[in-house]
Write a structure and sequence with these properties.
26% helix, two-stranded antiparallel sheet
């Protein structure tokens, strides 16, 4: 090799040296970034795995599209099953026949639209109930199955118990002893004791008796019409 060739080679090396240095630095930098990224991903994956383990999550499973069920009926807006018939079956009902509230004779009948003289009030008025002879303290019984809807003290009729005997029939038991009666909301069966006989201020001029009234759909009816024919 001539002296001239050696000189040309040195000049070429001087020109290429900065290029190789820059290229080497780029390669080193790229390797460093790649290693740092890989390390960061490993750390992040480890953190996520740890966090999932702490929360009881051990794996994520994706259901293949072919396994997704799409034909399950939507029952959210379906109506509830009708239980009204069952409720009707368990609802208390009336006994086949009514009984008298006490085993005594009737001393004053229902007058309907006819006015009768009231000895106590001193005037003519309708008698909306049926009076049974009795003595103070006699037990009064339910004339049929029912539910007590009201218990109250009335100025004219004394302590009064109202019982819903179903099918629009309400019976009013008047002139009972205060504190001796059933309570509002009680369910009673035929012949159950309702209370003890006391007094009726509106009919105090008559001898001691029990006064009972019956209403069908809000209209007075003759209580005797409910009793079986004798």
């Amino acid at each position: 090799m001539t002296q001239k060739d050696k000189g040309s080679k040195k000049k070429l090396l001087k020109k290429l040296s900065p290029f190789y240095i820059v290229a080497a630095l780029c390669i080193v930098s790229a390797l460093g970034v790649s290693l740092w990224s890989a390390k960061f991903r490993v750390k992040t994956d480890n953190n996520e795995s740890t966090s999932n383990s702490e929360h009881g999550i051990t794996a994520v499973y994706t259901v293949p599209a072919a396994d997704i069920v799409t034909d399950v009926p939507d029952t959210r807006h379906e109506t509830e099953p009708d239980t009204s018939e069952k409720e009707e079956e368990t609802k208390p009902s009336r006994a086949a026949q009514f009984v008298k509230p006490m085993d005594t004779d009737i001393v004053k009948a229902f007058s309907g639209d006819t006015l009768v003289m009231s000895k106590t009030m001193g005037d003519w008025r309708t008698h909306n109930g049926t009076d049974f002879a009795g003595n103070t303290g006699d037990p009064i019984r339910a004339v049929n199955n029912g539910k007590v809807t009201k218990v109250y003290d009335d100025v004219l009729w004394g302590t009064t118990v109202e019982i819903d005997h179903f099918d629009g029939l309400t019976v009013r038991y008047c002139g009972l002893g205060k504190g001796s009666t059933v309570s509002e909301g009680d369910e009673v069966k035929i012949n159950d004791k309702i209370g003890n006989l006391s007094e009726i201020p509106a009919e105090s001029a008559d001898r001691t008796h029990f006064h009972i009234e019956a209403e069908k759909d809000g209209k007075y009816i003759d209580f005797e019409s409910l009793l079986p024919a004798s």
